[in-house]
Amino acid sequence: MKDTYDVVIVGGAVIGSAVAYYLAANPDFNGSILVVERDPTYLTASTSLSSSSIRTQFSNPINVKISQYGSEVIRNFGEIMQIGDDKPDLAFHSGGYLFLAGTPDQVGVLRENHVAQKACGADVVLWSRDELAEAFPHLNVSDIELASYGRSGEGWFNNTGLMYGFKNKARSLGVEYITDEVVAIGRNGDAVTSITLKSGAVVKAGTIVNASGPRAALTARMAGLDIPVEPRKRTLFVFDCAKTPEGTATVNQGRLPLMIDPSGVFCRPEGRFFLTGCPPVEDPAADWDDFEPRYEEFEEIIWPALAERSPAFEAIKVVNQWAGHYDFNTLDHNLVVGRHPQVRNFVFANGFSGHGLQQGPATGRGVSELIVYGEYRSLDLSEVGFERIVENRPFLEKAVI
């Protein structure tokens, strides 16, 4: 490790590693990059504990375009991240998302969202109750008024594969990773100048990128800044099904999608099992080290909703469960990407609120463009910049799960 780097990235999971890769791969950047990661096992990283899905079914065009680019990168990941003869395979499962609407308000949102999605070229269709029943015969659709289904560009994939693909490629391009923890950030007026590590080392930095996930606020505070991001706990359950409905669909070669029930419960195939979760009834900030699952959510919320939605889900059994943290943006539940308006060499890549994996590629590319060119050149992410935090101006997105 040297004593000075052009760019220091705090956090080496999917966001930090995406930023590192896009910087190192940019032919117009020839600087030095250091990534500081406190836990190289990534056992409790939001990346590792994610449901690792991607969708284009958002309401805001920026989010749609971010995921369209993410889908493109995921589909071509092996070629992009190839090192020698090694081509990482993310095992992308093109299952699509299926949003179900049962109330007039939910129907209105799906229709409005669909207009934005189609304007961006997303491959999403709206289905009537009868069309839904024909596509997925196992579902009880008596209370459903409208469905929105992503025919392509949506699905799920290997979460840690995405992270390690970016990380390994970045390292092959000269990025340095160290296992340590940032405990202080030096600042001189309107510029950050250095990081102090738990090991005692002090490293000078030309630019600091905050990619520290649920700990984003802790990192920002070291620089005398604030960002409304906190850890929120989400529990995921894997269950076995006595008689699986996988293979019964009349679309997409029989594959079932990731279904979002009107209750908020979601469910998707996971190999021979199914993965499921739900929005918590109460959603306080979690302790940084609290990863105890909310076991009661399955019996009290998830199973009743799934059993009502399909007879196939009446006889199911939990085989695994875990809890992970969203890096939850309390202002508007959306990513915060960009420079601080006063401290210009401090860059945020935070607050993804459960969408970090799918938004990682576009974020990495965007941050690298900001650092190298001082502006966005591919997709303008100004709308999700830090200025809206200062102005208390929420970024509107209706399709937050």
UniProtKB/TrEMBL annotation:
A GO CC term attached to the entry: cytoplasm
Domain FAD dependent oxidoreductase span(s) in chain numbering: 6-370
InterPro entries: FAD-dep_OxRdtase, FAD/NAD-bd_sf
Family matches, as SUPFAM superfamilies: FAD/NAD(P)-binding domain
Residue ranges crossing the lipid bilayer per the database entry: 7-24
Keywords: Membrane, Oxidoreductase, Transmembrane, Transmembrane helix
GO MF terms, alphabetically ordered: oxidoreductase activity
Any matching Pfam family: DAO
Signal peptide feature range: none
Keyword Oxidoreductase: yes
One GO term of the biological process aspect: mitochondrial respiratory chain complex I assembly
Superkingdom as given in the UniProt entry: Bacteria
Alphabetized PANTHER family for the sequence: FAD-DEPENDENT OXIDOREDUCTASE DOMAIN-CONTAINING PROTEIN 1, SARCOSINE DEHYDROGENASE-RELATED
Protein name, entry field: Glycine/D-amino acid oxidase-like deaminating enzyme
